[in-house]
Amino acid sequence: AYADMMRDVAARRLHAPPALTGADLDRWLDRFADGQGRRFSTLVGALMTARSTTETVARARDLALWRKDILRDHS
User: In the structure, how many helices (H) and strands (E) does the chain have?
Assistant: First the structure.
């Protein structure tokens, strides 16, 4: 659910073509690498395969940092 929310926010704020969904939207979002070169689909994949609560929190944090960098969010 968190990855879906992040995908929706990023797509809206980056003006993704409305017809893009699923993997196509993820590939479109991958055009935007953060300052560390991390891409959306890689971060979502890491979040989805996390094996512990600690790892899940860390991967969610990575995705939040991607959003902050790409969208220039300060909140």
Answer: 4, 0
